[in-house]
Queue: 4 jobs
Job 1
Amino acid sequence: MNKKNLFLVVGILLISIILSLFIFKDKIASIIDDHRVVLEVNGEQVTKREYKIRFNALKENAIQFSSRTDILDQVFNGKTYRELLKDELFTILTEELLCLQEARKRNINLTKQEEEEIKKYIQELKANEEMRGYFNQYLRKIDSDENHFYRDLYKTRLINKLYSSITSKTTVSDSEIVNYYNTNKNQFKKRKIIDIFLKVENEEEDARKREIANKIVSELKKGENFEKLVKKYSEDDSASTTKGIIDYFRKGEKEAEYGSVFEEEVFKLAVGQISNVIKTVKGYHIVKVLDEKYMPLDEVKEEIQSKLMKQKKDEAFRLYIENLKKLSKINVYKDRTKDL
């Protein structure tokens, strides 16, 4: 090859390289940006790519939970929810790295069986076409993949094992259980009520049923017998056998059936008192509290023990993590996530 042809080939190659760099410059810049370090904990780094995936997951959960696509732009205590989420994520990732470092120091690992359980869980998510579609759509939304999802589950299981190791000696005494019971007795209160229910199946009949409900309240205020009005008005399918009576229940036990608003109103009333009209997703209710009683300690002892045990373990683990933070070198680069 003569010099002229050689220069021509080299020139073409250089032009090709320059054109490639120009065409893919945004992609290259994105790759470089993804590899920027946004957090360092004792020398271990979190890249912007990792941070972005986790932020996308938090963002997606916030939108789904609130049913608001604009939730990230809402302001709480002078900060947008987006900024609050980003701050919270730095805390989560810092504590996560500290936990994983401690797990390594303590030689805490997952068994083969535990690893297989994670794989099985992912396979179950993909077991049918509909679930597989939701799973893949979720991964695309957060810009992740199945391998990354597996690693996140792996880390969670590992941290749970560390939690168990740190809190294994936690105990709850009988005196703590008795004290909790005596100072939180309202949690163990049960109410027995009688209910007049008007079913609302569509918007068209809502106004009419509301009018009937208001009429019933007026009749009750004039001294009309509640049981008589149950028989006359209530549209509960079981009213003919129960006579509108809902037997003793705790706060929380009827939430799935009637909703939280119903329970809130019921537990505000005194024994013998009649409510105003209560609107629920199923229709309208007017209730009267017939009686109340408190569950005995023996009946709720295990429940209280479990609750106190969790509280004490969570607090012990929190203090452990806070101590690790004090002993660690932590660098946070918030400015590198401002475009998220």
Note: The longest strand covers residues 283-294.
Job 2
Amino acid sequence: MIQNIKYFDGSGFDPYLNLAIEEYLMETTEEDTCILYLWQNENTVVIGRNQNPWKECRIRELEEDGGHLVRRLSGGGAVFHDLGNLNFTFLVRKNHYDQDKQLEVILSGVRKVGIHAEKSGRNDITVSGRKFSGNAFYTRGEKCYHHGTLLVHADMQKLSQYLQVSKEKLALKGVDSVKSRVTNLSEYEPGLTIQTLKNKLLEAFEETYERKAVYCSQEDLDPKALSDGRKKFSSWDWLYGRSMDFQYELSKRFAWGNGIWQFQVNNGIVKDLQLFSDSMEPDLVDRIPGYIKGSRYEYKDICHRLDQVPAETQTQSIIINDLKEFFAAAEL
């Protein structure tokens, strides 16, 4: 049972430092503690851990406008952050992780400003069927977090300008543009400010966990660890990864997210490959290519290799089975 709750109000808008703070808080969260971290990034596109930056973001336009590209630890899709958006992160040990309780904090906080919100799909929170919050999740051993966005008065023009959302994904959502499927909370409560929402989320946090929150600040954290973390999250290797010439590309949108495979094949053998995905199972996506590398470039051998990938959850079993069916039907 959670005995202590802490509240960390991020004071800066540097996206690389903010991700370093988030990772540091995750690594140092105590056994019986839950932390609520509220933070903002300025003019930033944040992609999921397994996504291809060039396919998800109009990088040149973003950089020309002084924006930032960031890759987070968690899976899921790309999002746009500006100062009209508020981010939240719940950091807790795995044995106390309670997604429903954490979401109740967000839903209750939004209700406190007069807006009725509800959970929708695998990771969205909506009002009147339109998304204002996307959620993602990350686990490292016994440490984990749940984070997401809250669109308050974000610049929707920039959101649609920088993000490259596939037509297939939009069709799955039943809409024709990224701008039409999202909304700002200020549309339903004019005059709503970021600070007001922060205050209400803190109230909801304390009420839901029936505890008084202890306030924390950046001064309480290890500056060297934050500096090292910022260097990692802003590095070329982390943001863009390795460049690979590929000969074959296969892709499909599944119920759990998209999958884009790039293969380098020599004499019928898979010499190298990359898998890009907005799946909420980033660790599985990281593991799969290692099992396929060295196989014959034909569906029987690839499916045999997929059979060897360990599934740690029911969702991971579904993903592996879907991929086997996909390769069995693919024209390689």
Note: The radius of gyration is 20 Å.
Job 3
Amino acid sequence: MVTTTWPRDAAGKGWVRTMHGWSITRRLFVAHSVFIVSLAVFVSTAAFVDARDRGYAERADRLLAVAAAIADSPFVVRASTSPDPTAALQPYTLEVSRDAALDFITIMSPAGVRWTHPDPAEIGRQYVGRTGPATAGMSFTDVTPGSPGPSVRAVVPILDSDGEVVGMVAAGVRTSTLQIALDARLPAILAVTLTLLLAGTLATWVLRRYLRRVTLGWGPEELARLFVSNDSVVNSVPEGLILVDGAGDLVLYNDRAAELLGLPPRPASRAAGAFSPGIDELDLPPSLADLLRSGRTVVDEIHLSGSRVLVVSQNPAEPTPSRLGTRAAPVGTVATLRER
């Protein structure tokens, strides 16, 4: 048997290498998608928990009102002190349960012995659930796994004219967390979640298209290498190079051009601040400034710059097709200068 042992960090390095091959568009698309899905899950979970809690509270309040109305009924008070409470109260509780759409109404003695129950076989048996507060004369609600199944219930004491507890009423509905949420606000939660996902997906798609266009499909590492390589090439040529955009700003020039025209040195990095001076802001020879401003194509045109005689050629700056097979828009003109 041959066992192959992989380095512990092999999977992580493989994932990093895979991401290095991704474009900025893909990276932000994946990150934004993960964020949107995570946000949707968080919002829907929080809304679901809130709906569940509100559903329990609303049902408990309704059950408490029904149980209190039954316990306050003179008929129920008289029957609770009669020799046979079941005979009078069992038909009554079944009818009220149907009318109020409850799963059960149980009336019991102060000791918790059932006088009524939806299942007649349970009559006479001990009530399953908490009754302490009710025997002390206080109403309460509870979630209890009783004989009808897990239920939300309200327990209210039956008091006689002297204020003594002569019985207790328990009204409840069998339910589950999902059923309560469905009855409460789950449809609205699902609608909000789907709306959030759709809006996030649309925003991600728009962002992806925009970044795909402006980055030409290149990844950040590739763009960094491309910038360093181009900057090295631009500054290594013996001629001066000037790139002027359509607005008449000097987007790029090399060290040789700065030397020939007396231009200020370019910042070493973008961190030093953007530097795209306009042609009119620089102290250029009038004829050369007019040429750069016009954008016309010339070959070996003579211009004077102080004591220097410059040979200038200018052409439109036509970018090559990108890796996506599309051609970016022209960025202006590029001029070369050499001293005669």
Note: Residues 24-72 form the longest helix (49 residues).
Job 4
Amino acid sequence: MKTSSLIKNFKTFSIFSIILVCLFSFKTNDKIIVVSKDGKGNFITVQQAIDAVENGSETRTKILIKAGVYKEKITVPESKGTILLEGENPENTIITYDDFASKKNPEGKDIGTTGSSTIFIYSNNFTAKNISFENSSGKVGQAVAVLTSGDRIAFENCRFLGNQDTLYLKGVQDLTDKTKPSRNYFKNCYIEGTTDYIFGAGTAIFENCTIYSKETASYVTAASTPQESEFGFVFIQSKIIGNAKEHSVYLGRPWRPFAKTVYIDCEMNSTIKQEGWHNWNKPNAEKTTFYAEFNSKGTGANAGKRVSWSHQLTKQERKKYTTDNILKGKDLWNVKTSLK
């Protein structure tokens, strides 16, 4: 009986120890900052919270944003440490502003496409969850909601709302050194727009996302992938849909000659043009771009009628288009860690 009791006690202690280990494994050392418009948090604006993040800190700062509409233009400087920006849900946690490219600055000059963004993310190791990022200026030409140029940037369950040029994955667009990585990951996100509403030089994966072409839409993407980059924009198991007119929207056009855009296992509705891709009236770009699909489905998927200079990947070619292979880089970035 004593032996049986000892064994029972040992088992109970072992189970308790395992539970403790699991609990401690989920404990983080994140610094917490709360933003709330009602004054019950640490700050009432998102920019104030960003400003409070320690420069260069390896400890992650989690900025919890309470429900509300935050009309502000936000900059996340390159110097900031690791940040997680987390809202309550994207329907009621909204960051919005209404600048646009042709708006005049105090000197009377256009602020330009870059200057129109609602939020500028220049830092590395930035993650956002459960937030809507909006440019609310309307149909006034180029008007960016989010601009990224940092590296190891991730979004989960976020919405990107706008019209032309909604999401600018700027990356090394204006840099001399085109080898500097700018990797972006979007999971379960919603991105809408009309013209070139996902564009830039960054590398990005859109996984299980909804890409929505609004009425009057014309082009989904306008990649400017550097020649030195193996990957540009990759859409995996996403929905390419919208309410634009039937057969009125191209999957992409090349902002720069080495644009790379690939759709893997995506559902496409009838808004997509049968030819799929446009050369931006640059015939030479047909020789340098890489536009491809694998296993596209739906009424907008028509491999036989795509332009001759686009590609349908083989099963072997498709194997390299995995999240890990595209984003890991030399530093072996694990995006799952960023999303914890």
Note: The chain has one domain: 66-335.
